[in-house]
Structure formats: C-alpha cells, structure tokens
C-alpha cells in the first residue's frame, strides 16, 4: 500500500465513488482538506491502519452510504473535522478508532451520527458532537462488540435516541466522563 504520505489543503471529489479510498495503506495524514464522494467521502478499508484525518470536511450525498466508512482497520484517528452524510460515520470490524474535537452530522431522516457495527474493539470519542434528525440516533454500539467504549465531553443533539447500546461481548467496558444531551427529539431516549 501507499504508506507515510501527507495530503494537505486539497479538494477531492469522487463523483460516483469515493473522495478518498485506502486499503493496506498505513500512517497517512490528510489535513485541512475537503473529501466528498457519490458513495462515501472517505473509506478506510482492510489494513488501512494508523491513518489520520485532521481539520477536514468529509461528506457524502448518498442516501445508503455513510460519509466516513472504516472497515477492518485499526488505530485510525479523526481530529478537528466535520463529517456529514446519511449516516455520518460507520465503523465495523475495526480496532481503536479515535474521534477528537469532531462534529458528526446525520442527514437521513433515520440516520445515525456514529454507528459501530460487529467485530469492533475499542472506540474513543472525545470533545465531539453527534447530531441526528428527530428519527435518528446519535451513537449506536452494535451487538457483540468488545473492549472499551470511552466517551468524554460528548454532546448529542436532535436524535430520537441519544446513545443506543446493544448487548456487548464479555470484557466490554463503558467509560463515560460526560455526555450532554441537548435538544433531543420530543419523547426521545437519552441512553
């Protein structure tokens, strides 16, 4: 793969597919850039480890695809960024994803700001905002996940369900420093 590259102050638009797509590409940095795709703004796939997306905007206009998709990748970080899509970010089969000072906005009526699906281990979400429409969800932690879900200074807005946790695997740890629920939908469930 393409490793140890830096992309700065760039606009990448993939009209039909992806703004940025990486498989088996490690330790790359994208900063101060705009990534948009017809399907996904950014996709970190199998073996795309230790990559960093900083101070960037990631968007997708696709109804059925998330703006950011992380699949079978580990130790990727998203810092100081804005992510907007039907579901803002979808993570599966991945380890140690980090979101710091990031805003995730779901645009689909029932979209999720951040969905973590099966096979995942460890997620760190710090000083970030999750926004979803009145039928959507802020954070979804899917069934069978393990490791630590660490939430610190997180704000959830607009959603029908703020944080939804499914039955986790043995050894799961939930570590919450603070979560603020602001302006949730009428009749919403915070956790």
Question: Briefly, what is this?
Answer:
The protein has 191 residues and is an all-beta fold. It is 0% helix and 52% strand.
List the helices and strands and how they pair.
Layout: E1 6-8, E2 11-14, E3 18-22, E4 29-31, E5 34-37, E6 40-44, E7 52-54, E8 57-60, E9 68-71, E10 77-79, E11 82-85, E12 89-92, E13 95-100, E14 103-106, E15 112-116, E16 121-126, E17 129-131, E18 137-141, E19 146-152, E20 154-157, E21 161-165, E22 173-176, E23 179-182
Parallel strand pairs: 1-4, 2-5, 3-6, 4-7, 5-8, 6-9, 7-10, 8-11, 9-12, 10-13, 11-14, 12-15, 13-16, 14-17, 15-18, 16-19, 17-20, 18-21, 19-22, 20-23
Task: Tell me what the structure shows.
The chain has 191 residues and is mainly beta. The protein is built from no helices and 23 strands. The protein has an 8-stranded parallel sheet with strand order 1-4-7-10-13-16-19-22, with no helix packed on it. It has an 8-stranded parallel sheet with strand order 2-5-8-11-14-17-20-23, with no helix packed on it. It is globular, with a radius of gyration of 15 Å. The N and C termini lie far apart (40 Å). The relative contact order is 0.11. The model has no long low-confidence stretch (mean pLDDT 95).
């Amino acid at each position: 793969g393409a490793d140890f590259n830096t992309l700065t102050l760039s606009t990448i638009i993939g009209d039909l597919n992806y703004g940025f797509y990486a498989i088996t590409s490690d330790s790359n940095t994208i900063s101060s850039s705009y990534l948009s795709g017809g399907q996904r703004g950014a996709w970190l796939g199998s073996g795309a480890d230790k990559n960093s997306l900083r101070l960037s905007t990631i968007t997708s206009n696709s109804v059925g695809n998330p703006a950011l998709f992380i699949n079978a990748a580990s130790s990727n970080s998203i810092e100081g960024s804005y992510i907007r899509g039907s579901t803002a970010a979808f993570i599966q089969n991945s380890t140690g994803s980090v979101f710091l000072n990031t805003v995730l906005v779901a645009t689909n009526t029932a979209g999720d700001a951040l969905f973590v699906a099966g096979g995942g281990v460890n997620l760190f979400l710090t000083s970030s905002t999750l926004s979803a429409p009145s039928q959507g969800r802020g954070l979804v932690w899917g069934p069978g996940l393990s490791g630590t879900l660490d939430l610190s200074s997180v704000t959830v807005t607009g959603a029908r369900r703020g944080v939804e946790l499914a039955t986790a695997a043995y050894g799961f740890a939930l570590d919450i420093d603070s979560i603020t629920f602001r302006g949730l939908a009428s009749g919403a469930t915070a956790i």
